[in-house]
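agent> Task received from the user: take the single chain below, predict its 3D structure, and emit structure tokens. No templates, no multimer pairing.
agent> Plan: (1) validate residues, (2) run structure prediction, (3) serialize to tokens, (4) report one or two observations.
agent> Step 1 OK, no nonstandard residues flagged.
tool_call: predict_structure(input=
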Amino acid sequence: MKHVNFDPELELKKARIMEEFKQDDGPGESETRGTFSDGPVAEIDESELREGIVEALKTVYDPEIPVNIFDLGLIYDIRIRDRVVEVDMTLTAPGCPVAHTFPGMVERTVAMVPGVAGAIVDLVWDPPWTPDLISEAARLELGLI
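)
tool_result: status=success, residues=145
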């Protein structure tokens, strides 16, 4: 599933975050959005890192549906560059009551994964979420199969 959500301002912020992160211990929280690790970051291979990120995302549950956000299909993309993780996620509806707080919680969860230096969550609405995105395991759990 590929979507386009280009925001020039956000892209400039991401580039600045990556550049600052390479030059020092990472940007201060007041300088940019995103969550960055305060401690040392272990070296890890990208496939192991991705597995850890997915496992961490599976610990975050939608407050209205008893299914984790990964199996619910709310995670559209995970990109890793220089141990900084960028996650494109959506919500089940634009009017979701946790729209302002949920992305920050996901950032903090991803940033806690060993090997992750920082996390940025982009909340996207294109393509819109539909129940078709729910994993087969979650459908079974919800009694939809």
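agent> Step 4: summary for the user.
Helices lie at 8-23, 46-57, 102-111, 136-141.
agent> Done.
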